[in-house]
C-alpha cells in the first residue's frame, strides 16, 4: 500500500486534455503564422517599411513563444502519463508482493 492515493485515470485524462489543447494551439498558431510574419507596408515610404518589418518581427517572436508553450504542454502531458503509469506499476507490484 502506498502513502499516496492517485487516480491514474484522472491523471491520464488530464494528460490527454493537455495534449489536445497543445494540438489545438499548434494548429491555430500555424493557421495564422503567415499573417503574423508577412506584414505588408501600408505605403511605399521608409516609415511604413520599418513599421511592417517591426510587426513581422513581433509576429515571429510570438510564434516562437507560442511554439515553446505548445512544447511545454506536450512535455507536461508526457510527464503526467509517465507519473500515472509509474504509480500504477508500483501499485501492481505492491499488491503482488502482498499476495505472495
From TrEMBL:
It comes from the Bacteria. Gene3D superfamilies: HP0062-like domain. This is PE domain-containing protein. It comes from Mycolicibacillus trivialis. The lineage of its organism: Bacteria, Bacillati, Actinomycetota, Actinomycetes, Mycobacteriales.
Amino acid at each position: 500500500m502506498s502513502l499516496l492515493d492517485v487516480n491514474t485515470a484522472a491523471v491520464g485524462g488530464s494528460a490527454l486534455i493537455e495534449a489536445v489543447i497543445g494540438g489545438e494551439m499548434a494548429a491555430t498558431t500555424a493557421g495564422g503564422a503567415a499573417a503574423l510574419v508577412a506584414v505588408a507596408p501600408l505605403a511605399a515610404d521608409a516609415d511604413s517599411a520599418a513599421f511592417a518589418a517591426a510587426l513581422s518581427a513581433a509576429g515571429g517572436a510570438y510564434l516562437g513563444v507560442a511554439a515553446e508553450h505548445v512544447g511545454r504542454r506536450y512535455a507536461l502531458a508526457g510527464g503526467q502519463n509517465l507519473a500515472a503509469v509509474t504509480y500504477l506499476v508500483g501499485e501492481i507490484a505492491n499488491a503482488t508482493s502482498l499476495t505472495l
